[in-house]
Amino acid sequence: MSGESFLAMRGITKRFGDVLALDNIDFDLAKGEIHALLGVNGAGKSTLIKILSGVYSKDAGSIIINGEDYPLGSPRAAIDAGIAVVQQHPELVDDLSGAENIFLGQEATRTGLFSPVDHEDIRRQAARLLDRFPIEIDLDQPVAKMPAVDREIVAILHALRLENARILILDEPTSTLTEREKVSLFSMMEALKAQGLAIIYITHHLDEVSEIADRFTVFRGGRNVASYTTENAREQNISIPNLMLDAVAGNFFPPYSERVNGEVVLEAYGLARHSDFEAIDLVARKGEILGIFGLAGSGIDELSKTLFGVLKPDEGEIRLYGQPVQFRSPADALKKGFFLVPGDRRAEGLSMEEDVVFNTTLANLSRASLGGLLRFGLNRRETHALAERVDLQPPKLNRPLRGYSGGNQQKVVVAKGLYSKASVYIFVEPTVGVDIGARAKIYDLMRELSENAAVIVMSSDCDEVHGVADRTIAFCRGEPIGVLARNVSRDNLFHAGLMGGIQQ
User: Contact, 257 vs 289, CB < 8 A?
Assistant: First the structure.
């Protein structure tokens, strides 16, 4: 890493009406550096990146790249300045190959009546790109058949397809990757760094900072509050959560429930989908949170969809308050008092083009309407109360969901669940892409919901399950490991999900 400042942002200020989103921000990035940008939702990270990528214009300040002043102000100007951005959820065309996605919009065509796309030229361009950035990937394969890490690599190569790319911005690139896939992505990032690329890395996974970043900067309340090299932070025992929250974070999981043997709400006996998971027995009660831990491919996602009527079980029985229930569809499960917070909130949990009121009331239309007509005034008032309850930031009820951060989108999913007044809540990967502050709020809401409903948390984050659940079940390659004691150690829970048994 070079010590020189390749990118220098000085005094960057941005207002949205009365809201001061960025307050005289300074930010530096060196050539050949991976610099993590950290902060809770609303801290100003996204605003700074949108200014750097030309989506927003700054109100004040200067942007210096390699000693030259760049006013930016448009995406085209940012691209011309050599700034490449990979969004958290890159838009790829599944039916096209990796190479075709990389050069989408820049396809060479053969001369002729219909000017067909020159696929051979695309392959040659892709080969030249891999000569610049030697990565093991089959770019002839359709994107739909690629693992998540290869899709992320395709998105990065698309951003770097222009030879003038000098600064790469990665927004939550590991949010959908397994631990093994992260290794491949980090290897690519190290290779890009070695070629002198300057990388801004936005993440909510704080454990990744020391693993991949040379330096990190923390934003809080629209200000740059700290910047350290990872080595110095380690030597000084700096707590990143404390910097982000301006308080000693401590254990941000809510306390365990003191209630035992609460009313049984949900039971499952011998529930199985043989292609995904084998027979599982579970009991979920009021007053506690049941946690189910499993790594990617363990079967927990399929279990959640089976409990919610998306998938049909091969055998077994589900009971609600002691009575057998069967679901014809997810809508039927909703009517019977089940609510699923899915792992992919964008694809399965929200309508991204609709506003907060629409999304919140969608789960209980019988409550949201009277005589077939929506109760607009009442729905807005009730949504406003729920937005306050989940601490939605900003609480703009008319804003489409695509305009919110990942953490605030997840809060809307939780508000949707609160509006449904369900008997059973199933949370799957509830804090993927969610910052530490929003995570604490979501965990508190889970604990609140558990007072009057059954709450099940399914996650591949062992710390999350261990921290939030009163009782836990581990899944390993479709095989459930029985209910584990409340005092099971984090290491034993992880070992059960990884190896299929408790360490002796």
Answer: yes
Burial class (CB in 10 A: 0-12, 13-18, 19+), 224: buried
Tell me the average pLDDT of the chain: 86
Helix (H) or strand (E) holding 443: helix 436-449
Q: β-strands 424-428, 338-341: how paired?
A: parallel
pLDDT band at 417 (very low <50, low <70, confident <90, very high): confident
Positive/negative CA dihedral, 232, 237, 241, 245 = negative
Helix/strand/coil percent split, the chain, to 5 = 35, 25, 40
- Laid out side by side, the sheet with 68-69 consists of 19-30, 5-16, 60-65, 68-69
The distance from CA 377 to its chain's CA centroid, rounded to whole angstroms, is 32
Beta strands 373-374 and 323-325, pairing class: unpaired
Whether 229 and 223 have beta carbons less than 8 Å apart is answered as no
Does residue 52 contact residue 15 with C-beta atoms inside 8 Å? no
- Residues 447-501: tens digit of each pLDDT: 999 999 999 999 988 888 988 999 999 998 888 887 776 678 877 887 788 777 6
Between β-strands 223-229 and 215-220, what pairing exists: parallel, antiparallel or unpaired?
A: antiparallel
Is 264-337+422-499 assigned to CATH 3.40.50.150?
Answer: no
Q: Where are the beta strands (DSSP E) in 172-310?
A: 198-202, 215-220, 223-229, 264-273, 277-285, 289-294
pLDDT of residue 384: 93
Lowest-confidence region among 111-120, 295-304, 404-413: 111-120
SS3 499: helix
Query: For residue 111, what pLDDT is reported?
Result: 47
The contacts of residue 49 (CB under 8 Å, 6+ apart) are 37, 85, 169, 171, 200, 202
**Residue 466 near residue 472, CB atoms below 8 Å:** yes
Q: Hey, what CATH topology would domain 5-245 get?
A: Rossmann fold (3.40.50)
Please give the Cα distance from 347 to 185 (Å, whole number).
23
Distance of CA 244 to the CA centre of its chain: 18
Tens digit of each residue's pLDDT (9 = 90 or more) over 126-183: 888 888 777 778 888 888 888 888 888 888 888 888 878 899 999 888 876 777 788 8
C-alpha neighbours within 13 Å on the C-beta side of residue 108: 11
**Bond prior to 394 in cis (omega within 30° of 0):** yes
Burial string for 113-144 (b: 16+ CB within 10 Å, else e) reads eeeeeeeeebbebbeebeeebebebebeeebe
Residues of the chain within CATH 3.40.50.300 domain(s) are 5-245, 264-337+422-499
Q: What are phi and psi of 307, to 5 degrees?
A: -65, -20
- What Rg, from alpha-carbon coordinates, does the chain have? 24
